[in-house]
Task: structure prediction
Amino acid sequence: MTRRVEFGPAAEAELLEAAAWYAEHGPNLPRQLRREVQEAVRAIREQPERFPLLHQDIRRCLLRRFPYALLYRATHDLVVIVAVMHLSREPGYWQERLD
Result:
């Protein structure tokens, strides 16, 4: 079963911020980052249980090339990306977004 995937507003802002940062460091980097995020979203959509639990019902999918992880919550028909977390950031900063 494939699920619908939505980015929470804060996660979307983090992705845009990361893309803007990479744009300053190489013209192709934002496109490569977005491509890698799309690949991760595809993998999460197809099999969300395959990625490890990080906290309660939040799972983590590491990007391969970039130092980011997609943190998400999955139900039977929906995946919500709650954070596009830089791996060098304060680890639990995103927990305040959980209900």
